[in-house]
Structures are given as C-alpha cells and as structure tokens.
C-alpha cells in the first residue's frame, strides 16, 4: 500500500489507502479573503492565529499555509511573508503543514524554515513548473501535490486529466522522486456547472489508485461552488470520494457536518479501529428525538419557520 509520509518536528502523519482520511485545513489562505489579506500585508496575524487554533481544535490532520496576498497588494514579496506565516503556525501547533504556493522562490524560502517533512502544494503538468519545483522537492525530500492540468489548461475530459497525472509521475521519477511522494489532485469540477463532475472524480480517483498507485487529494468545496446550502453537498461528497479511494482533502475542518461525514467514512472503511475516534468525539451527543436534544433545539417562535442566513458564495468558506 502506498504511504505518503508528512511530518512536523514532533508528529508524523501517514496518508494512505488504509489510513484515516487526512484532513488538510484550508483556512490559512488569504485568497478570496480580502480582510485577512490586508491584515497579513500589515503584519497583523491575529486572524491567522485564531484560524490555526480553531482548525487544530476541530480535528485537522495537517494545515495548509498560503501567503498569496497579491490581489490586495501586488508589491508584497511572497517569500518573506510565507516564511513569517510558517514560523507562526509552527509555533502554535505541532501538526504537519502543507506549503501552498506555486512560486518557486517562495517554496524555496519556505522549505528552508519548515520543520519536519511538509507537503508542497503544488506542481502542475506544465514543463516550466515541473522543472522549477521538482528539484526543490528532491532537494528537501518532501512529498508534493500534483495538479492535473498543463499548458493547455484544465480539461473537462477525465482521461486527459489522468494522462497529465501520469506524465507528472513519470517526470518526477526522472528526478528520483517516488510515486509514494506524489499526491495527485485530479481536479474537482463544480457539480452545478457539470452534472457529471462527481462521477468523473470518483472514476479518476479509482484509476489513480489502481493504475498509478498514488494518493489523492482535492479542494473539497469545489464540488459545491455556486450552490446554496453548500456544506450538505460537501458532506455527501466526501464519504463518496473516500469510498472511491481518495485519501486526503483540503477542506474546512471547522464545519461539523463535513467532519462528521469524514469520521463516519473512516468508521465504515475500517480505518477507525473499534470506532475509537468516533466514540471519543460523539459519545456525549444526545440521540435525535431525545428529551435532551429537544431541550437544546432552538425555538422557532409562533409556529413559524425560522429563516437561516444566506450562504457565502466563496469556494473556501
């Protein structure tokens, strides 16, 4: 079985087919979060600190760290900001990290200060990117996320995306990088725009596992982009992807519905021995319909139905 090893200075995590699903917390990312981006540009890391601690408490396996703030200030140099952010994150938690950048100087600077064995997120099938990033992956002996697009863009044809992944794995082998250190992102399309997106990614994940023997990941919230009540879609998608063979996802662990789905999938796939993690998290949850559950339920008032707030439109909310 393929085992992708990631580690901090004191904790090791195994991403693998017979391992608990790896939840990569997505919140330390200013993309689409203008307030966070502005804070980071100003040297204010209060929100980053809160997001680190909240994701750790929610049960993230590792944390993705992104410092791409050019949408707010294109003059900010990414390498020193990414280094500062990584140092802060590593001071707050011993969870392994994923270094999220496609800028090779930023990756180089980040890898020089990252402790343990971080995951590099990411490289694509573009030759220029491969030749810039794979030498860093080899130099620091770290695993890398391989995104299934190349110079032609993102294909809607899953066979094309599979071939891009195969080409990245072969190119990495030329650098002496094992397939065990390649975590493929087959690219999840929004189901609201492409009705076959779910079936496509499930079939792709099976092929990647069976034919290339690689672990897989995705941006889980992409599947629900543009839809209302997105977290219910995400929560349904995750166990189906896990059953197809997906071994990790970049997602928001602070969404209880999605984390419940992941933990339940771990139980059902046999990756939570004796249901220990499930029991630890949910032993005190009152059964639906019980008196204690009814007492905890919010009143609707006057027999009317209470309206919830409008869902956010951002992909990674």
TrEMBL record:
Can you cite a GO biological process for this protein? methylation
Which ranges carry the Pterin-binding domain? 21-269
Keywords assigned by UniProt, alphabetized: Cobalamin, Cobalt, Metal-binding, Methyltransferase, Transferase
Q: Name one GO cellular component term.
A: cytosol
- Where is the segment annotated Disordered? 292-317
At the top level, the lineage of the source is Bacteria
Q: Name one GO molecular function term.
A: methionine synthase activity
| Classification via Pfam families | Pterin_bind
Q: Which family does the UniProt entry place this protein in?
A: Belongs to the vitamin-B12 dependent methionine synthase family.
The protein's name: Dihydropteroate synthase, 5-methyltetrahydrofolate S-homocysteine methyltransferase
Report the source organism. Answer: Aurantimonas manganoxydans (strain ATCC BAA-1229 / DSM 21871 / SI85-9A1)
């Amino acid at each position: 079985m393929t085992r992708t090893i990631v580690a901090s200075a004191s904790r090791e995590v195994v991403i693998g087919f017979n391992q608990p699903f790896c939840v990569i917390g997505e919140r330390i990312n200013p993309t689409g979060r203008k307030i966070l981006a502005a804070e980071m540009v100003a040297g204010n890391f209060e929100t980053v600190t809160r997001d680190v601690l909240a994701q750790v408490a929610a049960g993230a396996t590792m944390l993705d760290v992104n410092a791409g703030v050019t949408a707010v200030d294109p003059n900010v140099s990414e390498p020193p900001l990414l280094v500062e952010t990584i140092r802060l994150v590593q001071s707050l938690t011993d969870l392994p990290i994923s270094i999220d950048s496609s800028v090779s100087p930023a990756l180089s600077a980040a890898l020089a200060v990252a402790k343990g064995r971080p995951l590099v997120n990411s490289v694509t099938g573009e030759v220029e990117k491969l030749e810039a990033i794979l030498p860093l992956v080899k130099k620091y002996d770290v695993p890398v996320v391989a995104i299934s697009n190349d110079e032609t863009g993102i294909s809607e044809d899953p066979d094309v995306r599979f071939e891009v992944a195969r080409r990245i794995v072969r190119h990495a082998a030329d650098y002496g990088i094992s397939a065990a250190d390649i975590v493929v992102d087959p690219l999840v399309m929004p189901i609201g725009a492409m009705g076959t997106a779910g079936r496509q990614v499930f079939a792709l994940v099976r092929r990647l596992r069976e034919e290339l023997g690689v672990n897989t990941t995705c941006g889980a919230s992409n599947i629900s982009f543009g839809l209302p009540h997105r977290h219910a879609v995400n929560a349904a998608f995750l166990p189906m992807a896990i059953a197809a063979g997906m071994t990790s996802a970049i997602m928001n662990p602070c969404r209880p519905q999605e984390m419940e789905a992941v933990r339940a999938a771990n139980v059902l796939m046999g990756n939570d021995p004796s249901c220990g993690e499930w029991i630890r998290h949910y032993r005190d949850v009152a059964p639906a319909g019980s008196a204690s559950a009814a007492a905890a339920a919010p009143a609707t008032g006057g027999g009317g139905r209470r309206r919830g707030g409008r869902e956010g439109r951002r992909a990674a909310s």
